[in-house]
Structures are given as structure tokens and as C-alpha cells.
From TrEMBL:
UniProt-recorded name of the protein: Putative pca operon transcription factor PcaQ
Family matches, as InterPro entries: HTH-type_LysR_regulators, LysR_HTH_N, LysR_subst-bd, TF_PcaQ, WH-like_DNA-bd_sf, WH_DNA-bd_sf
Record keywords: DNA-binding, Transcription, Transcription regulation
An example molecular function term from Gene Ontology annotations: DNA binding
UniProt similarity note: Belongs to the LysR transcriptional regulatory family.
Organism for this UniProt entry: Aurantimonas manganoxydans (strain ATCC BAA-1229 / DSM 21871 / SI85-9A1)
Family matches, as Pfam families: HTH_1, LysR_substrate
Annotated NCBIfam families: TF_pcaQ
Length: 307
């Protein structure tokens, strides 16, 4: 059964104060309102519940049997709400709103900046430490407690033991080159092997996807290929050479939009993979982490990426 949306906090506070004071007049003084206002609020609550809660008489105000039952739930609800408010206040006072977030390069470039801006707007007291790196490294740091959250691609099954994963969106991999590259006018994956290649290293989340793509298209492994997930190197190297960069689209989305890099016009739908939030399986997220997760989800929706 759903809670009547007309029930407000003032109804519960008034009811509990009348029950404690055993007097509408005393309750009115404690609540700093008029006695008619207390009476009206109680009547509203009783009408919404369809039951008499308070017996009013010359001897004061006493709980009815239904009122005694409702009082136990109402007081417990207010106590829980009070504890929640105090918990947030204590977190703020103790400066425990600093979070350490792990993000794969694709997310660090595309999602995290706007999420950090949203976090600063909704929780200006919060502090963030952003760590980026290979997926295996980030998951190991999450397991040790050094990170509060990892945002990136779903890890291999054996690496996800003890973690929970919540998908945000799907992301493909891009084949990226410098503007004016010869391959931009010849969209044939078979020609990629003729050019230098920057390939994901062994710890990269997209390594398996890259290997499968090359096998599926009959591309040979060049001995001279460079393996790295260092995006600053990739950007600089591709701009200065004819290399082809196999990289998550989120890493280079802004570069492509600004015309600094270009995506090869080939179908990469087969490289789509889930991107989401990875957390340790035990315990509930802290208030600070809940705020940041909300900021991440809002950013993903604003980018039109939500699945």
C-alpha cells in the first residue's frame, strides 16, 4: 500500500508532540503554533488515515488503541529520518565527503568532468580525487579500498568477483587517425594493416575487443605496433604520423568534434561494450558516493548516452 502523498512531516511531528504532551495546548506551545492549528493538523491526519488517533477531552489528549499503534511507527520513522540528517551533518563536519574515483580514460575525458561540475553544484563541500589507468589496475585499487568507485567498461568475469556492476551506457571502439589521412577516403578495414598501429596493451579493458576485431577482419599482427593506453601519447603520435589508433570512442570524442582527430568511416558496431559503475559488493554507498553517482547518471543522461 502506498503512503498517502498528502501526509506531511508536520502531521507526524504534531501527532507525536500531542502524544508526548498529552495536551493540544502544550503541544502548540512547543511547536510554536496556535492550538487551533494543532487541532486542524491532527484532524487532517486522522481524515487521511481514516481512523481516530487522539481522544480529546477535559482531561487532556490521549492516544486511542489505533493511535498507540500508529505512534510506534511514526516515532520510529521520525527517529530514522533524524539519524539520517545527523549522519549527513556528521559526514560534512568530519570532511568525509572526499571521494577517490577511478575512471578509464574514455570516461575520464567524456563523463567525469561534467559530473564533477554537477557535484560541485549540488555538494560544494565535497572533494574529488580522480585516478585513471588500465582497468585491471583500477579494479585492484577498488578491491583494496583505495578507490570508492570505478567508472568504466565491464571487467572480465574472473576480475569481477566481489564487485557489483551497474550499466550506464554502451560504448564502441573507434579507429582514429589524423585529419587528411589516406584511409579516410578508403574505408576498408583490410588496409589498416599497412599503417603503423597504436593498440591497447594487455591490461586494457578493450584489449580483447581489439584482438577479436583484428581476427574477424583477417588483419595480421604487426611486430612494430605500439601497445599503450596512454591517451596523451596517442593523441600526439597520431597527429604526427599515419598511425591508426584503436581506442574507446569516449577518449577522443572531443578531439574528433574539434577536428583535431578523425574517425575512420568503418562499421564498429561489433565493438560495443557496457560502460558502468563498479563498486565493492559489501555495504551501502556513503552519502557522498550517492551524490556523485547521481551526478554521473545526470551527466550520462545529459549527453544522451543512457541506455
Amino acid at each position: 500500500m502506498e503512503i498517502d502523498p498528502r501526509v506531511r512531516l508536520r502531521h507526524l511531528k504534531t501527532f507525536i508532540e500531542v502524544a508526548r504532551s498529552a495536551s493540544l495546548g502544550k503541544a502548540a506551545v512547543r511547536l510554536n503554533v496556535s492550538q487551533p492549528a494543532v487541532s486542524k493538523t491532527l484532524s487532517e491526519l486522522e481524515e487521511m488515515l481514516g481512523a481516530r488517533l487522539i481522544a480529546r477531552g477535559r482531561g487532556g489528549a490521549t492516544l486511542t488503541p489505533v493511535g498507540r499503534m500508529f505512534h510506534s511507527y511514526a516515532s520510529a520513522s521520525l527517529a530514522a529520518l533524524s539519524q539520517g540528517i545527523e549522519g549527513v551533518a556528521e559526514t560534512l563536519a568530519a570532511s568525509q565527503l572526499r571521494l577517490t574515483i577511478g575512471a578509464l580514460p574514455s570516461v575520464a575525458a567524456r563523463i567525469v568532468p561534467d559530473a564533477a561540475i554537477e557535484m560541485a553544484r549540488t555538494a560544494p563541500e565535497a572533494g574529488l580525487t580522480i585516478v585513471s589507468g588500465p582497468n585491471a589496475y583500477l579494479l585492484s585499487q577498488l578491491a583494496s579500498g583505495a578507490l570508492d568507485l570505478v567508472i568504466g567498461r565491464l571487467g572480465q568475469p574472473e576480475a569481477m568477483a566481489g564487485f557489483s556492476f551497474a550499466q550506464l551506457y554502451s560504448e564502441r571502439v573507434s579507429l582514429v587517425v589524423r585529419p587528411g589521412h589516406p584511409l579516410l577516403s578508403a574505408a576498408d578495414p583490410a588496409l589498416i594493416a599497412a599503417y603503423p598501429l597504436i593498440f591497447p596493451d594487455a591490461d586494457a579493458a578493450i584489449r580483447t575487443i581489439a584482438e577479436r576485431y583484428f581476427i574477424a577482419h583477417g588483419l595480421t599482427r604487426r611486430r612494430d605496433r605500439i601497445e599503450t593506453v596512454v591517451d596523451s601519447f596517442g593523441r600526439a603520435y597520431v597527429r604526427k604520423t599515419d598511425a591508426v589508433w584503436f581506442i574507446s570512442s569516449g577518449v577522443v570524442a572531443l578531439d574528433v568534434a574539434d577536428g583535431m582527430l578523425a574517425e575512420l568511416p568503418v562499421d564498429m558496431a561489433e565493438t560495443l561494450g557496457p560502460v558502468g559503475l563498479t563498486m565493492r559488493g559489501e555495504g551501502d554507498p556513503s552519502p557522498a558516493l550517492r551524490l556523485f553517482i547521481a551526478a554521473i547518471r545526470a551527466t550520462v543522461a545529459a549527453h544522451g548516452l543512457a541506455r
